[in-house]
């Protein structure tokens, strides 16, 4: 046995010994029975992905998803079911069709899909293809007067990257053991000024390029998908805020079709393309975003305290937002359904939040946390106001609202559709023996690991940033980062029903135990923002 | 060291000891210099894939490829450059665009491409989707009168298959050692009657279904791509022969879009699709196919003897026929170019053949071998005549033509674009020490292995079947059977220039040494067809 392995075992044993954390095994049994043998998680997952489809923030389909999830919560007997409006998030957008054809010597369909929040072509347009590479404002001058009526090929060819690992990955004992290592973070350089400058330059360039392409009368722009093997990985392109320059229709094309276009142009050939994108903004003015909220109210003296679970309901637009994140939503909804079905009567209130605007930077969850729990003061300087929260100068001490102290814990799911293998403790060491105790009845379904590590990039961070316990589960990766993340293949078939059932049982049990334990979840020290 | 490994080493050593096969290292050096440092293989490969594009047998692009390759051979100073017409192969076909859109509640583009030799839709058509599962002639009756104006979904959903191996594979010492094992074949059951019956039933069903769908007035039919992950793997659908019922437009759709349609119909939902396929037969009547042939004539007494190299020039229609088989064609053309460039003066004639009709069953190479070297008598019974050669009753002894005894050896490349790692000896043990000697100057570029094994499914079999030495090289598989084989991703970017250079050098050297050695290549005993 390796030294590391021995240490892991000792740690696990001592964790459990220290914990003495009560676990209601009768309740866990009821939760497991409901989750495993009476599951509705796939019905929920199927409706979200295959009836509603992709759910771009503020799109009509997102509104449909808000309404449908509210309906299910009400049907299941949850309380305080409502949409929580936030922010002047921006305009809705949707697309229904996109095609690109190479014309001329050889006529060939090329596979491309539009970037969100870029305009449609208003019917087919045809033009000569020109290569455009703008990295600075000065580069724009090279192309002035040359792009009218043209289709623009943005950037260069990318060499094919061979797949040297299997597409799909599940944890094994070794990889789980590896998660027990914590990397002491390097001291970040005091580089906020540099990052702010770069952010400002990127924003300025993007706005200038959009205005320039539109002013030139270019027909459409095409860039390369960020993954190979025919996968279209594409997020947003244009601005979602009314009044910003929307630019021209823009698409991401599979590498296997994009690279030949680059080579043809580099070879001096003339290439003509026909582009047809049916896409539209669904609002004239900015609209608020909407999170969907529902509760199982607590009973007795702790009813004012809050346990939250959640996942983001919004998705990108080319797949059906299945692993990212109908999976998380279906699991969180199912956890609430299970708790109602087994007759759970939690002491604390259990609240579920289905976030919007996650893909645009955790917008819905951050706004919700700011309005309900805590926030740093808004900057008064317009330049600071224009920056994302992570780049702003500190504005003063955290402003805690009433529910800040009534809040216990938030559990999130957003690392694809794979099975839970444990939980990241986000450096909250006092939480670890609690999680170890709660996980024990799920060791037999593969969830064994509590890691000190932080994980980021999703909605639990909105809580973590203000010092509230927010956690994300360790999940089997499956093909999240090889096939489906933000791609047109993020669809129903890449998920596993058994994984979603397992996850729902664990979330239900975690939420229940968090709602029942004597104390709220311990908190780690809040670091002052720097 | 394993026992198997020791045996392999002993075999290798004894093979070399027995061989005493002369190798002209000065010539190998010249060939390597030209192949590695003055290569034109990528220029050839690029023109075939990205200027001409896919080359379906008898399509206009195939004719363009015949013409272009003839031009290159002439430019390089080869002799006897001509197209070799064969058979009344069938009609040409081409497509330029295809789209499928889901209409109704949610409008979504679905990714599908047409099967070769199926008709176009003559503009967009819209219809309700119905599921059709016809496995026998009797099944047809279930659908009679129900398919007019409908779009047909053929077959059922298929469960997603996770990728548990890396996409791309190169041989290592272990896998090469594994190739040294030969599996003694099981005695095949005398099942020709059964196979003939099944073949007949399949043909009858296919014809009946095509006639039925057309008679019903169904708009189009959609089946599932045979691979997952958004890859469209599609070959032929309709008959290439004039006079056969062409049926209706038929497409293969990515599994991620096909399966949801099945689930929607199984759920009782109404689904409407818009289908638009621009495809056409390019001939009214059957046309011959065309192989392209060229030679470096031999000098002196052995000039009438023949060494051949080749690869198939035809491809399927949705990618650009890159790994299958512009790679093989570019390598074979480059080998001829190299031999001219280094001033090779072979004693035997070296002939290159770029086959057509390979994807339809080695048609071009079989017909060529039959007309030039040997064939079994044509059956007189029309029922036997209608069968593929492999299913016919024996018709009598092999008829050998004049050049049968003048023929030495044929080398083929058609296992994707990956690097040569050796050669399959097709159970011709007398050839093995010769190949071992010829490979030795290429050990340093990874080509080391001579395996007794047979390999099939490509044009060397046309020679092997009549007792002529025909060989196929062992190649690194790369992503041939995960991404590119017969798919829309069979494109330029999935090939490696260095692999093609290495292969061209080896083919040039093998062809040269075969043309120079005292004796023709030894032959293995010809098995009577049973």
From TrEMBL, chains A, B:
Domain annotation Peptidase M28: ranges: 291-510
Major place of residence: endoplasmic reticulum
Signal peptide (from-to): 1-19
Cited Pfam families: Peptidase_M28
Subcellular location: Endoplasmic reticulum; Golgi apparatus; Lysosome; Secreted
Record flagged with keyword Lipoprotein: no
SUPFAM superfamilies assigned to the protein according to its UniProt record, in alphabetical order: Zn-dependent exopeptidases (SSF53187)
Alphabetical keyword list: Carboxypeptidase, Endoplasmic reticulum, Glycoprotein, Golgi apparatus, Hydrolase, Lysosome, Metal-binding, Metalloprotease, Protease, Secreted, Signal, Zinc, Zymogen
Quaternary structure and interacting proteins, as annotated: Homodimer. The monomeric form is inactive while the homodimer is active.
Protein name: Carboxypeptidase Q
Annotated organism of origin: Luteimonas colneyensis
